[in-house]
Amino acid sequence: MELKLQHAVVRVTTIDTAKDFYLNKLELELLEDSGNFFAAKAGGVRLSFFAGYDKPEASEDPKTGVSLIFRVDNLENASNELESKGIKPFGDVIDIPNFHKFLEYEDPDGNVFFLAEYYKEPV
Q1: How far apart are CA 106 and CA 115, in angstroms?
Q2: Structural domain range at position 93
Q3: What is the CATH classification number for the domain harbouring 73?
Q4: Does any domain span residue 15?
Q5: Number of domains in the chain
């Protein structure tokens, strides 16, 4: 069996906040919108966002266990663009020699995502 990632689901607390973040700030392409759900295109992957995520209290770890990695051609340029929109990474660039370098971010619900510039194809 060969598995190929084509579609991922992200749970969010509010659709409007998620739309603003993923469509306006990250500039993903809107594929579908039906009120409590929307879908966006990220490269060749469909991301579906659904309302209903209960964000933990501030004292709890908000990470959901799901992380998205967005491939970029130039990490510095992409990171500068996000910073101009008020989105700052956690920590410095992590460089894995001969593979990729990346920065870690969080969306408004604590879902982790990365911007990664690859030196070679990941698969």
Answers
A1: 11
A2: 7-53+65-118
A3: 3.10.180.10
A4: yes
A5: 1
CA 94 to chain centre: 17
Q: Which tens digit of pLDDT belongs to each residue from 39-86?
A: 999 999 999 998 877 666 666 565 565 688 999 999 999 999 999 999
Domain assignment of residue 59, yes or no = no
Task: Evaluate whether residue 1 is within a structural domain.
Answer: no
Whole-model pTM: value is 0.77
Segment 92-98 mean pLDDT? 94
